[in-house]
Design goal:
Strand content: over 45%
Shape: globular
Distance between the termini: 71 Å
Helix content: 10-25%
CATH topology: Lipocalin
Number of helices: 2
CATH superfamily: Calycin beta-barrel core domain
Length: 179
């Protein structure tokens, strides 16, 4: 009798486990889909990039970008270095929030700034990161627009808007992968 009860429990446990497992061809878990999309995005940006562009006033600027995958591709680390005479340097972390599926960007810069941005629509060649908060800058909004130019280029533009007005370019750069 005891053997039959054990056998019954084993069969019931196996049946429950099999019925809970995803079936091939079934709908993927949204988190898994976002993870796969993020890994593809991270793969595009990984590496070293040389960037040239200009500020809104026409002053030329050059920068170096480096992207590396972190924690088995869960996060993407970006290192941005403006070249002299400009002193701006930043470390940024890109990732997908599990709850919302939004792409996030958090920037830590050498001026002591920490800024957070999100993008709800990031699975195409264009990503617009809107600032989530700009404490201390009432009425000022910021965003970054990244655009992929396959096979080995991208551009990004930093934009600002004050007091609900239209967006104005702060700077724009074109980046090419360094081989």
């Amino acid at each position: 009798m005891r053997v039959l009860r054990c056998l019954y429990l084993l069969v019931m446990t196996a049946t429950a486990a099999l019925s809970a497992a995803p079936t091939p061809g079934g709908d993927p878990d949204p988190g898994e889909t976002a993870g796969a999309d993020f890994r593809a995005l991270a793969a595009y940006y990984q590496g070293y990039w040389l960037c040239e562009g200009h500020f809104a006033n026409g002053t030329p600027i050059t920068a170096v970008e480096q992207f590396d995958a972190w924690l088995n591709g869960t996060w993407l680390h970006e290192l941005h270095d403006d070249q002299p005479p400009f002193p701006y340097h930043a470390h940024s972390v890109w990732g997908v929030t599990k709850a919302s599926g939004f792409l996030t960007l958090t920037i830590y810069d050498n001026f002591g700034g920490v800024r957070s941005f999100t993008s709800a629509d990031w699975k195409g060649a264009s990503i617009t990161f809107d600032a989530t908060s700009t404490s201390g800058t009432a009425g000022r909004r910021e965003r970054f627009i990244y655009l992929q130019h396959p096979p080995a280029a991208f551009s990004f533009e930093y934009q600002v808007s004050s007091d609900g007005g239209g967006w104005r370019m702060g700077d724009h750069v074109e980046c090419k992968k360094r081989t």
